[in-house]
């Protein structure tokens, strides 16, 4: 019977009249529940450019991002949530006007920023060249 799948869907939806309500037409196809969020994030493109965005909701395997409409997203990129040390490698799954769906492929801790090592400061050994740190002869001594 050609409409057998539709009949089964209507029967499982609980609507005895045979007409699907607006709520029953929206079938949840996700395997994992989404958690609503409002995180501020940055999209890191392969060339190093960063684009501000928001994470609207997240699950174990993906997220929905709020992105500016004029931004063209590549197939894969990195996502950094501001305030957390995690960096996500994601792949674009879908896109509409101001939202994009991504699949999380890999995540890890962001490496700490590298800084140049400080040059050692010359120690002031003699009383006339400067103050000695951590050593006080008396409270009346200027050295």
From TrEMBL:
It comes from the Bacteria. SUPFAM superfamilies: PilZ domain-like (SSF141371). Residues 14-24 have a biased composition (Low complexity). Residues 28-105 form the PilZ domain. It holds the Pfam family PilZ. This is PilZ domain-containing protein. Residues 14-33, 105-143 are annotated as: Disordered. It comes from Methylobacterium brachythecii. InterPro entries: PilZ_domain. Residues 133-143 have a biased composition (Basic residues).
